Every structure is written in structure tokens, then in C-alpha cells.
Amino acid sequence: MKKRSMILPAAGAFLVLLLITILWIQKGRSGEEAFSEEYVLARELPAFLSFTYYDTKEWEEQLKGTVRGRLSYRELSELLKKLGVEEYVSYEGEAGFRSVPRRVFFQVYEQILDLLDPDAGVSVRELVFLDVEEREGQLLTQEGYFPVEGGRFYIHPYDMYRVYMLDGKVLGVKEALDTPVLWENVFIHSAGEKAAQVLFEKELFSVSVPSLAEHITDTVCDIEFLDNAVSAIYKKEETIRGTVLSYDEKQIEIEGYGALPHDGALRIYKTYGTVEQLDSSKLIIGNLTADFVVAKGQVCGIILMEPAHMEQIRVLLLNGESPYYPELYVKADQELTVSFGEAVTAIPAGTAVKASDYWTEGAEGYLRLSVAAEEGNLFLVGENQEPVSLGYQGAMEIRRFEEGYSVVNELPLETYLYAVVPSEMPASYEREALRAQAVCARSYACIQLGSAEYAKFAANVDDSTNYQVYNKQPRAEQSTLAVQDTVGEVLKNEGVLAEAYYYSTSCGFSQNMDVWKLQPESFGYLKSVSLMVDGSSPDISTEEAFAAFIKSKDYKAYDSDAAYYRWQARLKPSESLEAMEAAAKERQKVNPSNVQCFGPGGGEAPLDFGTLGAVTDFVPRERSAGGVLTKLEITCEQGSILVSTEYNIRKILMAAAVSVTDQNDRAITALNLLPSAAFTAVPGEDGFLLYGGGYGHGIGLSQNGANGMAKAGLTYVDILQKFYQNITIENIYNSPEATQ
Q1: Taken in order 347, 350, 355, 357, is the CA torsion positive or negative?
Q2: Under 8 Å CB-to-CB from 333, ≥6 apart: which residues?
């Protein structure tokens, strides 16, 4: 009896121990655990394997009930069978129930990658996780934000890991790092004894730092991490100050310093007002003075201490539609100063400068030509030294590219407008209309100063209708006075520069932004308005009502005296199918959704009039509130083409036009587009007759409408407030902070 009584307590103790062990194992196999080198958790595996046959969610289903808690050797064997690679992968085996150490798993994982990832899509990267607060499902690291699919649950601030990545996503953690990681080119707003305010990924946040020997303010540094903490901060000491002239994906040109390389990412930091990280649209060519932080000959940060001053503009002078000239000759009507690098030469008035003479072997830089007197003019000339352009004020810069030479005219913004206003609106128009045009042109130019399209040419805009027509008509006293009367004035909506679009002539209404497939509410100041002199608003809400309106010349608008107020176009599609198809395919390449072709069954089909057959009708599908077609269906015998946006409609139908006449029955020639997309189509015996109205896109100010309003006694302020609702007229020179 005594012996039996001793056995029972021993058996009970064994059972308790066994139960505790089982519970411990279960906890280890299913609980939320910290990162460990001793095991890999089952929940990490789906992301690691997502480069193979299944994505992460599908692997979760595949492994459900098969692998739990910590990955064991038995489960690893089963996993390799699922992948079909068990015969090709070797590793040191252990008892089936034992956990697979992380080191062993990744020896196996590397072999799986060799077998199933032949294109090496999965890569390894060293990351410091700066914050565990998600932004749109991503975590912040020293290299930016990344989605983290596996291992996120044990990541803490400043954890340092070597991770596997695929297509910009973190698949999971390979191992903890015990070597330093350098966070390069970091903008520090301020750093003291225990914390640094860092601006990164357009967010300002705090980073714990060790005690510093000096206080750091508004500069670029490298921050070193070691053992999950900041171990050192290295301040970049070299800073230069200058004006941005040009930039591209490889280098940035700074006045007085030439072109300096950058690493492909222009990091721009604003320190006045609020501290912000900006994009390259704020890198205003020719008007922005900044501090450039340089290390090892490379620009690694741009610091803006003050806003750009919109006083200069740089205009790329096109050679037809090309920015390149095979050769350039320039002369001036006064003594010409020519600078190339450090060499400065005086050239007598009337003597041409040949660009290629300055680019001898090994020569670098750009050629700058200027005259001392403000009223002096530079001319583009031919080889015979005869002018091929009107005179340009300001200075010219010539740069050499592989494709040829480019030429940029740099001049004050107001002087630029002297040559824009008469090129865009006849100088014979009423003074108040010219003033309205000047404000619109200045507003438009100020917005375009932030354009990066011509950054590599050191230009803000070009001289064509791509932006505003410049210097194609002689400067005139009336238009110059209109610019001077409105000096500095621009349109603003809620404190922001307004898009001051303008065009020639309305159909009796201006248009909403939906003619360009843009939401009208995003441009609340550009709403469709009636231009009827009596203040009425004719009904154009149905196709029948619009047809009656557009066919009539009796509706008196402020621009109804203009030739294009009403027009007609004769279309013969049967004679122009090839031209229409070419135009449609050209526009389809730009945006396939704007030109869609449908076959006999209604499904999408290749655009081919040979299979579509003859055009049978032009059917309006959508119109803007002001009458412009935004969707037109071209029906054919064996299908149809759906065309969206006013420009595409004008382009494609113009290919079928055999004649266009204005409201005075005069022929209009040399058109690439129909005058407007405000028209109705009427079938005829040999094609279609379009009854249309207006010239241009119809958004914003009608130039002929403005002239009619001025004749009626309205001021330029009245005119602008008619075409642009909820705007204010402000002066850019009085509020420079508004340029940023």
C-alpha cells in the first residue's frame, strides 16, 4: 500500500508536467511572438512564398491546418513537397517536431529561390523601420514607405533588419542587423540633445538621437543607425547659393557653377513660413535662388530660404515644332556682349554670331548673348545675316545637344507680355479688352513658370500655341499700355493662381471643364455662362433646342459680330475614310479610352474603316452645358466609333471636311481642326453639313467676347469677373509668398 501511494503522486506530477509542456508548445505555436533567430513562424511563410505559384492569400489557404505556430522540420518537409522541390533541396535535418532555426530556413529558402525565381525578382535589402504607424498600408523606412506582408507583427520603431523584397513589397525578415546602416541625405529641420526634427517623405517627425556637439538647423545630413538606435549624425558642410537654370534626371545647372550631378531624386525643402518638402514643380527656372547642399561633387539637397520672385521668364524659341536648330546665327541692333564660360567678347552691332564657332573640341557650357540697353533687340538671322524673326528683348542663351542647338530668350515677365498680348489679341482691340487679355496672359504665364517640361533646355515655356504665342506680331503701343496698366495683376481663386484659359470666339456660351474630361467642380471659377448682350440664356438643353440655336444668327452675343460666331463645314466621309482613320488612330494612340471602336456585335474592335464600312451618321452622345460636344458616335454600316473630348472630335471630323465657311460665307482655309465642337450635323445627298459656332475650346475668356464687352462700356475687371467666377485680381509683386 505504501509503495502504491507513492506511485500515484508521481504519475500525477508527470501528467501536470506533460500538460504544461503541451500548453507551452501550443502557446509557442500560435501566440504573438517576437522576432527570433531560433524559429520561423508559420504566419511568415505565405508572404515569403508569394513569388511562386500562389499569392499571399492563396498560400494562407494552402497552409491552413498544415503549418501552425513555429515551422517544424516535419512541416518544412511537407512544404517542400507542396513546392515540388523536395528532391533538389538539401539541409541538415533534425527531429520532425523540432523548430527550424531561421538560419536553416533561409539556407533552404535561397535554394528555393534558385529553383523557382530564375529572374531574381526577389532581392535582399537592409532597412531601418523608422515608424510602425501605417500610411495606406505601408511602413516607413530610411528608403521610403513599403508594404510589409510578412513579419510586420514583430517590427518596432528603429528595428534594423535584412529583408526579402519583391516588386517593392517586403516579403519578410531574413535576419537582424548588427552592422551600421546609413540613412543618407536627410533634411534635419532642427536637432538638439535628444531629438531631431526630420523632414522625410513630405512629413516632419521626430527621431531620437544621442547628444550632439552642436545644434543642427535646416541642413542635409547622413544619419547612422546601429543596434536599433541612432549612433551618429554627419552634417554635410558644403553649401553653394545660386539660381536654378536647368535640370533633368541626371544633373542640375546652377548659375555661376555650371551643371552638377544629382542621384536622380531632387530633394527640395522649404524653410520659410512652414517647413515642407516640395516636388520639382516648385523649382522655378530662372527665378529661384536657393542653397544647394553638395557632397562629393553631387547635389544632395536644395533648401529654399525664400520664395521665387516671378520677375523673369525664359522662352524656348522653337524651330517649327522642334526645339533644335542645326545651326544658329544671332545679331543685335546694338553692341552685343557674348559670354561663353569665363570668356566675354564684345561684338559690334549688326555682326552675326555663329553658335558652332564657340563649341570647339572639349568646350562645355552655354553661350549667352545680351545688349546693355533695355530697348536693344536681338534677332535670329540666316547665314546671309538677314533677320528671320522679329527682335527679341532681354538676353539669349544657346545650348548644344546631340540633336542640335537650342535657344532660350530670357527677359522680364512684363516685357515678355509686351510681345504676347499683340500675338494673341489684335492690338487694334479695345483698351479694356487688351487689359483683360494682359491679366489672363500674366496669370497663365505665372502658372507655367512651374512647368518642368522644358527644364533640360533651361526654359519655362515655348513661343507657340503649346503655351502662349510670343513675338509673332510686332509690339504695339496699345497692347504695351494694357500690360503697363495691369502690371503684376493676376487672377486668383481662393488664394491660388487661376487657370486663365482663353480662346478666340464663343458660340454664345462659354464652356465647363468637362469638355476636357475634367470635373467642373475642380475648377469652380470656370463655369459655362451665356454671353447674350441682353443677359438672357437661350435654351440649349436638348438636341433640338441646340440645333435651332446654333443654326441661327439672330442671337446677339457680345462676340456675334465675329466671323467665327457661326460657321458651316461640308463633310464627305466617303471620300475621306483613309484620312479619318489616320486621324482617329493618331488620337487613339494618345489615349485609347478617348477613341473606341465597336464592331457589329457591339464589342470593341480594331479601328478599320475597311471593315466598318461607310459612315452613316454623326450622333451626339454628350454635350457640355455650353453646347460643346464631349462625346460623338460616328456610326458606320458595320459598327461605330465613339470619340471623346472636344479636341479629338474636331481633329477627326476635320479630316473629312471639304470646305469650311464663316458666317459671312467666306472660305476658311489652313485649318487642322474644326473651328469648335459646338455644332450639329445634318445629312445631305453627298455627305453631311455641320452648323457650328465659335472658334477654340470655349473655356474661359472669349477674346472677341471681351472686345464686344469693352465696346459696350465694361471695364477689364467686369470682363474678367464675367468669364471667371469667384476670382480676385491680385498683384504678384506685392505678395511674393503666393508663388509657392
Answers
A1: negative
A2: 349, 350, 371, 376, 377, 379, 391
What are the residues facing 642 on neighbouring strands? 596, 633
pLDDT in tens, 438-453: 999 999 999 999 888 9
DSSP per-residue letters across 105-174: HHHHHHHHHHHH-TT---EEEEEEEEEEEEETTEEEETTEEEEB-SSGGG--TTEEEEEEEETTEEEEEE
pLDDT digits (tens, 9 = 90+) for 388-432: 999 999 999 999 999 999 999 999 999 999 999 999 999 999 999
Q: How far apart are CA 605 and CA 714, in angstroms?
A: 53
Mean pLDDT over all residues of the chain?
Answer: 90
Q: What is the pTM of this model?
A: 0.78
State how far the Cα of 328 lies from the Cα of 522, in Å rounded to an integer: 44
What's the CA gap between 439 and 487, in Å, rounded? 8
Residue 9 is predicted with a pLDDT of 52
CA 181 to chain centre: 33
What would the pLDDT profile of 593-640 be if each residue is shown by its tens digit? 999 999 988 899 999 988 999 999 999 999 999 999 999 999 999 999
Q: Is the pLDDT of residue 709 over 90?
A: yes
All three cell numbers of 383: 547665314
Q: Cβ(707)–Cβ(583) under 8 Å? A: no
What domains are defined for the chain?
Answer: 42-116 (no CATH), 123-176 (2.40.50.140), 180-308 (no CATH), 313-493 (no CATH), 545-692 (no CATH)
Q: Which strand (E) or helix (H) includes residue 549?
A: helix 543-551
Report the C-alpha gap between 471 and 487 in whole angstroms: 19
> Cα 687 from chain centroid?
42
Nine cell digits for residue 581 = 482613320
By CB neighbour count within 10 A (0-12 exposed, 13-18 middle, 19+ buried), where does 60 fall?
middle
Q: CA–CA separation, 46 vs 48, rounded Å?
A: 6
